[in-house]
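Hi,

I'm pasting everything inline rather than attaching a file, because the server keeps stripping attachments. The sequence lines come first, and each chain or strand is labelled.
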Amino acid sequence: MIHDSIIRDVLVTGNKTPSDVTKDISRPILNKPSTAWKIGFTLSLVFLGIFALSLFNTLWVGIGVWNINKSVMWGWDITNFVWWVGIGHAGTLISAILLLFRQKWRMSINRSAEAMTIFAVICAAMFPVFHMGRVWVGYWALPLPNAFGSLWVNFNSPLLWDVFAISTYFSVSLLFWYIGLIPDIATIRDKVKTKGQKFWYNFFSMGWTGSVRSWARYELVSLILAGLSTPLVLSVHTIVSTDFATSVIPGWHTTIFPPYFVAGAIFSGFGMVATLLLVARKVMNYENYITIGHLDAMTKIIMLTGSLVGIAYLTELFIAWYSGVEYEQYAFMNRATGPYWWAYWSMMSCNVLAPQVFWFKWCRTTPWFVFIMSIIVNVGMWFERFVIIVTSLHRDYLPSSWVMYKGSLTEVGLFLGTFGIFFTCFFLFAKFLPVINMSEIKSILKNRE
Amino acid sequence: MGLVDKGLSLRNRGRLLVGVFEDEDHVMAATKALRSKGTDILDIYTPYPIHGLEVALGVKRSNLSVVAFLCGMTGFSLVILMIWYMYVHDWPMLIGNKPVRFTPSWVPILFEGTVLCTAFGMGIIFFLRNRMLHGIQPELLDDRQTDDRMVIVVEADNNVDEATMLQTMKEAGAVELRERIGGVQTVL
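And the predicted assembly:
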């Protein structure tokens, strides 16, 4: 016997029928692009241009156009890398972990969050790849025999683990996203009119008909992929954190890094999901699908992970003091009161203090306020990576090597440019693919337990 | 049993009866009613997953989880073999005189390799089993079956006579009944 839920609020408002869902969500695909889309896309292309220019400068002149120097060998580039990878994590959290926990509210946001994951990982990959300097020998990072003998890659190096982790994460996320898209691509296939559109949507729908047996397998595969993606996403940021934690740099050599990085990743990722969805819901009129209930749930996660990150910061401070290691103590003292104090306190206020406002319901359910907070969260998380990387590196063990670091124009340009990559991809996605998972949304219209 | 689920194809079938529905509860009721009368249902097409429908239809649980496990084991073994060959056998890399044998530092790559093989191995078998390929033409019975309509299709030559099957679907709430002969459908 099936009952309508009496406990939960409806997940989709406005009494939508399955055919309304199809109409609403395929509208941007079937119609001509809106003015908002055109403006946004053009702006993204401008930023993409900035990326191209900065990259050209990096490759033409050499890596020296970045201000990274003798002891600060990682600067904006790795800060941006960790930042973008972290952002990607929320997508997997929403689509995989919340699927395992049977959180149905994820259904209207998982598609765009997964897209965000994929685009964020593309942006992230730019930085370590071009940090190599001679990017044309980048394939040396793969397990291939060296041309000058049979020297292979170093399997003990966290940097190699990163190569495997990021590429696995990217490809598995892409597969998960694509399998989830197939039924919706088929829906679009049966709606489009022009020959070109018919061809491409037919090509990518892989002959999907919606047979009950296909659905049964589809659901099983989604569940297994979710089960695989859950440890995968945790492993990715764990491995990114071991890039730092396995070194002997004060402030990096700590065992708390893996959980702390994972919490931070989910925190910043939800910040970005909130930023994107608040705009999408307004511009594309998806208020009935991405409801205030979604904001409420997401901001709760932001508050939880923000607090986890806060505990990690305090633990770091405590352990630095408690360890009795002079270098460690100095590193943290220097973070808070040294020349980069402003970065440290920006990080603290944006990541630890700011999200505490979400204890109040008004703050969780007011879209414009959540939007501002989501930006603050991402600024804070960028500063976190900057603080970890730069403050630890600019004070070497040898005081004669102490330096100051600030990003060059090219480095700033590359960072801004990745927004170009990200938003260009996102706008194309919003134009050609359904931003909300139609088939899953249709299955929860009746709001049953 | 081949790898591809041939039951998914509508080609080379005799006369088919098609019932079109617009509510998931009606499809469920029709499926249960047809099955209780002993009808063999060829397939049901729905625009979204309807939970319990595959059970009502009597579809066995897919073995894809076993496939996933086997692919994972294969991936695990291949990665062990790769690291062992490159790192222990072919060119042992001595760093700080640490032992060149299995160490926990192998674990991250082993894990990633296992996940990669599991996901893609299972994904490929999933596509094959579901008769899915890029560019293949779908066999649709209703142009709204991926939008908001559900379609039950049964072979006319069945354990139960035609009139009973049609009547059962009608009673359960079918909005349209059709027959399909050689790819051409006529409303009944």
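The first strand of chain B starts at residue 16 and ends at 21.

If the labels don't parse on your end, tell me and I'll reformat.
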